[in-house]
Design goal:
By secondary structure, the protein is an alpha/beta fold. Helices cover about 40% and strands about 15% of the residues. Strands 3-2-1-4-7-8-9-10 form an 8-stranded mixed β-sheet, with helices on both faces. It has a 5-stranded parallel β-sheet with strand order 13-12-11-14-15, sandwiched between helices.
């Protein structure tokens, strides 16, 4: 396999680490991205995302010539689709990027090509990929309508945690959903270049739903914790103490609540199940609605606290400074996708009634910057703020002395105990 070529479509949080892992094993890899800045950055041996260990692997792969980034595909033996799969409108799945990726690789397909979809997708997407490709390459045989295809297609979802991707790509078990048994076995062969976890073979539809199920399971459990936080606030009970006590039961493991749920997977994937089976997914939909509402509830709490500060200090609301600690969707990464913390900050900043500061050393700028909001240091924020709001449990925030005199009872913490 080391002399074959793998073409990876999409060089984001999954595509680039996957490309780097293949290249680190001597596989010839061409990574494709439509963003020329991303392509130029990678070809310079640099990375455009924060992921521990990724920079060194990419730099070595580029130096050795095993990895090349490009804006267009090349003829390859294997094509792996790692493009985004967002939703639009009333949470309808948007497969535009997947379809575009199919269109870009179709001219290069040949007999014995292997196409793998990694993008988290609605059930039936892999079948749809077969149809799109067969329409563009009618002279080839595809597995959706041929018992003995000469183009092999499979669905192999990623199952990694941002911040720990480089290890989990190697060690985690891998679900392989082949359109045929041969498709699955070919996929196992390619991933065996670097995956040490067990390969779990199934059909494509089951693999698609398995990925959605994993993230929906997390979403439902987080929704339970978030709903508990609302109940505890209403009853004047410390939710963190409540959960700690409840978890002393040998068969109870309540998760921690937060400001919402973010990331491309957990905040998006459950909607794919709801869209496919709306009458049968009432619990999953309710969990999504609870988690989507949490940022709105947080903003209401912040606004209420601002009014209390104004009344207690006779300070005009326009002079009050609110500092939001954390913008990413989880601690110690730079990923802003579907981030509830970013959503909260932007809702506050759009009010234009008070000064908003943001603290997050993991990001370089605030998306959709509209007014005077700015990124500042921890020390500056703590010194200037009338109200500190902790939205993400970044490691650096554990070094802050939160009990400074002017901040007593003026810190809203939505991430749990922060100890030094």
């Amino acid at each position: 396999m080391s002399k074959s070529t793998v073409c990876i479509l999409g060089l984001g949080y999954i595509g680039l680490p996957t490309a780097a892992m293949f290249a680190s094993k001597g596989v010839n890899v061409v990574g494709v991205d439509t963003n020329i800045a991303v392509v130029d950055t990678i070809n310079a041996g640099q990375v455009h995302i924060i992921e521990p260990g990724l920079q060194d692997v990419v730099a070595l792969a580029i130096s050795d010539g095993d990895l090349i980034a490009s804006t267009i595909p090349v003829e390859s033996d294997v094509y792996i689709i790692c493009v985004p799969t967002p939703f639009y409108g009333d949470h309808q799945p948007d497969l535009t990027y997947v379809k575009s990726a199919c269109g870009s690789i179709a001219p290069f397909l040949k007999k014995d090509s292997l196409v793998i979809v990694e993008s988290t997708s609605p059930v039936g997407t892999t079948f749809q990929v077969c149809e799109w490709l067969s329409e563009l390459q009618p002279n080839l045989d595809f597995p959706h309508n041929n018992e003995h295809p000469n183009v092999h297609i499979a669905y192999c979802p990623e199952r990694v945690l941002p911040g720990n991707v480089m290890r989990e790509l190697v060690d985690n078990d891998r679900i392989i959903g082949g359109m045929t048994d041969v498709c699955a076995k070919r996929s196992v062969q390619i991933y065996s270049e670097f995956v040490k976890g067990e390969f779990l073979l199934t059909d494509a539809k089951t693999a698609e739903l398995a990925k959605l199920t994993e993230n929906s399971f997390r979403d439902v459990n987080i929704a339970f914790a978030n709903e508990l936080s609302l109940i505890c606030d209403n009853l004047a009970i410390d939710v963190w103490e409540l959960i700690a006590l409840s978890n002393r039961h040998p068969r109870v493991n309540v998760l921690n609540p937060g400001a919402g749920v973010g990331g491309h997977c957990i905040a998006v994937d459950p909607w794919f199940i709801v869209d496919a089976a709306p009458e049968q997914s009432r619990l999953i939909k309710t969990a999504r609605l609870i988690n989507d509402h949490k940022p709105v509830w947080v903003v209401d709490k912040i606004k209420s606290t601002i009014l209390d500060i104004a009344n207690e200090t006779d300070k005009p609301i326009g002079d009050i400074v609110v500092a939001c600690f954390g913008l990413t969707f989880k601690p110690d990464i730079d990923d802003l996708r579907e981030s509830p913390a970013l959503q909260i900050f932007q809702m506050l900043e759009s009010q234009a009634k008070y000064t908003c500061l943001a603290v997050d050393a993991n990001v370089k700028e605030i998306p959709n910057f509209k007014s005077q909001a700015s990124l500042v240091s921890c020390d500056y924020a703590v010194e200037m703020a009338d109200l500190c709001v902790v939205l993400v449990a970044h490691s650096e925030f554990r070094e802050i002395i939160w009990d400074k005199p002017h901040l007593r009872n003026r810190t809203l913490n939505f991430v749990g105990p922060l100890t030094r």
